[in-house]
Inverse folding.
């Protein structure tokens, strides 16, 4: 569904992506791990076209990105942002239905609200939450609203950016379970960026280790612990000793 071939991206003298090769099969959940500043978010932005890669190719469903109808391209994606990224001035249902009220996906207000309430139910929130403002919700509830918004338009591809950041272990487990259930039910292709190894084990079919602008290892999550790549083993064990330099 998504393929990156020798993708490179630099910002001045900062060479962030140095030839990334990655395949994400349709209907699978890929989790990209790696330290801060290794290029995970830049790779995601390149796929979406928010950042233009310098060289290499990126295709979605066999078609090169950056060509054709931009709105139609973005309509295929859903996104759960790291900090939920809800609009403070909009009610919860208006946040969930944000895309359904605009552009090519525009629906009548009543229909959009009904869809929003149904998606809120899917992530475990009751209809009375719909008319609250984000500030009235806990962090875990805000993350669920963000997840409801990500799936509101029934996207083919969903990106999750650090989905459990800032959550306690129990709520993080709830969010991980919801992500796994929803991706499976929808048959969506998922790409997740995370440092949380508990999330990796809960939601991944495959993982990719990104370090120093390149994919160092990729494979099924079941093979992760037995892999012989030193970058991967240092990361998943949290060891300060290894090829990844720790800032002391």
């Amino acid at each position: 569904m998504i393929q990156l071939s020798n993708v490179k991206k630099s910002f001045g003298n900062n060479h962030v992506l140095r030839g990334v090769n990655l395949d994400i099969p349709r209907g699978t959940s890929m989790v990209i791990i790696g330290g801060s500043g290794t290029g995970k978010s830049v790779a995601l932005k390149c796929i979406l076209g928010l950042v233009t890669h310098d060289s290499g190719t990126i295709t979605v469903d066999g078609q090169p990105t950056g060509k054709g109808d931009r709105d139609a391209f973005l309509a295929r994606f859903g996104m759960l942002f790291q900090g939920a990224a809800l609009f403070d001035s909009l009610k919860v249902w208006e946040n969930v239905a944000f895309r359904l009220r605009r552009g090519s996906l525009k629906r009548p207000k009543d229909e959009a609200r009904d869809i929003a309430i149904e998606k809120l139910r899917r992530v475990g929130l009751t209809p009375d939450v719909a008319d609250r403002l984000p500030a009235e919700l806990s962090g875990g509830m805000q993350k669920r609203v963000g997840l409801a918004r990500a799936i509101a338009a029934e996207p083919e591809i969903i990106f999750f950016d650090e989905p459990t950041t800032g959550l306690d272990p129990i709520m993080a487990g709830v969010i991980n379970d919801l992500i796994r259930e929803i991706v499976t039910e929808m048959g969506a292709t998922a790409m997740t960026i995370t440092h949380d190894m508990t999330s990796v084990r809960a939601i991944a079919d495959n993982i990719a280790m990104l370090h120093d602008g390149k994919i160092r290892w990729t494979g099924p999550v079941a093979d992760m612990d037995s892999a012989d790549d030193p970058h991967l083993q240092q990361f998943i064990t949290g060891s300060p000793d290894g090829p990844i330099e720790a800032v002391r």
